[in-house]
Design brief:
alpha/beta, eight-stranded parallel beta sheet, five-stranded mixed beta sheet, 11 helices, 15 strands
Amino acid sequence: MSKQVRVGGVTLGGGAPVRVQSMTTAHTSDTEAVSAQIARLAQAGCEIVRVAVRDEADARAIRAVKDASPLPVVADIHFSARLAVLAVESGADKIRINPGNIGGEEKVKLVADCLRAHRVPVRVGANTGSIERAYLGKYGRSAAALVESALHGASLLEKFGVEDIVLSVKASSVPLTVEAYTLLAARTQYPLHVGVTEAGTRESGIVKSCVGIGALLLRGIGDTIRVSLTDDPVEEVYAARRILRACGLEKKFVDVISCPTCGRCEWESMRLAQEVERRTFGAGVRRTVAVMGCAVNGPGEAKEADLGIAGGCENCVIFKKGVVVRTVPRERAEEEFLREVDACIEETE
């Protein structure tokens, strides 16, 4: 089990739930835009948010961003120990740095002293674009190089008394990412921030993230995750939540099961399934709702569902735990079933 690190009011590692992260895309100095984005991320189920710190204006803006944020705020800094210190002094709940590009051991000590004084944790991030030269020369662009680079960065901070460390070793290659995190998990007790970096646009990025992050979570590796997409960051949160649910790591959610449809389906089951999922995504209760295309995949295959519907040529049947409770005309099926879905969610567990 990994050690625990607290990021604001959120605990990572040590048996805590796997936490979902994302990152804002607006300039941090535009506090109004960033705060609006953070509010949307929180509503979608994000638990920790990261903001980019490009300059002094961004670093100083963290105070206002944090004051308005319902989530812990992580400052992402590269190449500047001064900005890292200023971000911590401005109230960042955590920072993300690569000690190798911060300016040498003297600069690392400057950041480390500030982290200790303010009791702020740090993520040491290594990816295929930031491997330390010594390890790149020794191992090439490989899992071993990523792991050694991350552990070296952590050792520099440890040298100056920093103990609240989170590690990451990301690659855009799924097999390389899985191999690197597997090696790292065997060599450290620090919490691991897991993700496939530069995963791509929404469709391809979600597939790569599901395969990579899912493979690691099913091995018990990972304390916090970020799905990296070239898209609205809210989509990252939705994808991350779905990964946790598929891996059995999120317990209270509405599991919408639906058949893929075929030539036997004679009603709009696909559209209804999509609407049910949208409507129930953040419900926070454990239910199973089934939307089935026909009698073949109806109450029989979905008999464990708390609530379900199956269509026919003229009518649809609504069932609970495999028992048909009523039959409704096909043209009223969507309206009637959505009413039942709302009632099912509101029932006391």
